[in-house]
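Q: We require from you a single protein entry containing the residue sequence and its fold in token form, and nothing else.
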Amino acid sequence: MRRSMKLAAVVLSGSLGIASLAACGAKSTDTTTSAGSGSTLKVGMAYDIGGRGDQSFNDSAARGLDNAKSQLGVTVSEAEAKTGEAEADKETRLTSLVSAGFNPIIAVGFVYQPAVEKVAKDNPNVKFAIIDSSSTTQPSNVTSLTFTEQEGSYLAGVAAALKSKTKHVGFIGGVQSELIKKFEAGYKAGVKSVDPSIAVETTYLSTPPDFTGFNDPGKGKEAAQGQLDKGADVIYSAAGSSGSGSIEAVAMAGKWAIGVDSDQAAQPALSKYKDHILTSMVKNVDTAVLAYITAAKNGNPLTGVKTFDLKANGVSLATTGNHIDDIKSQLDAAAQQITSGAVKVPTAP
């Protein structure tokens, strides 16, 4: 079980439990499932690249759906993406969920933005949520669920700086996008807040429209090895399932890895590396998903842009392994500075 520690008014913990969906889409298993009887709410979820089982971003969203299924008795369906798919594939996936009667529908990831806008405009009576995107052109039936990734990453940077013995750390981003730059910016700011002289290596695995950087553990491993060879001894990866390759390389070198989105030291596929996963910057997508579905079920749906920040436990640091217990006071102080407004964390490197 994960343990959590409080940072001032903020809980630094692994993300909450949640996950389950099925239906139309590239890797779909057509196993639409129902939980409870008498429920009229049918919730669809369309995953980003990597899908359920990525040990990271998608899994956090899936935990939210699972919790909604078990706690609220909703019917759920999940649809998975495939690497290298066209925009039309995303539109087809969402349209298939609409045709099957799912409402609301949750799109996991900013890559769905164009498809969500189009399908939502074509189906004004269906509610949609999109995670990690807040376009000003979205129709009124689309709700944005966003997070202050830079705030959680700042704390990860503080932890990295305090634990580094070489004064040399690294950041690996899956895709060089505005979203992942928020992780980079926060991390670097956190590192420099402790010691401006610490060197920070930065590597991106792909650049839009190539999104394979989120689903290529081999690239993640290679990038991490490159940073290790340059002297980095703490490496933070914000790269979806590619991060598992990075964690493997760092662990094999006996250094510190920092996970992302889910408490990666507690993920079955990565638990063998837990002694070398310093912490994970957990983005509590599950919390947002459950909140959105709960509001919809109660007849009071969330609208507009809903941001889950550090103060609201939208982002947090995992404490599995107790590896950051010795720097708790410094992390407490950093968290307090953010939540009080004394520190404004940058969103661009």
About this structure: The two ends are 35 Å apart (CA to CA). The chain has nine helices and 15 strands. The CA atoms of residues 21 and 156 lie 31 Å apart. Residues 1-39 have pLDDT under 50 and may be disordered.
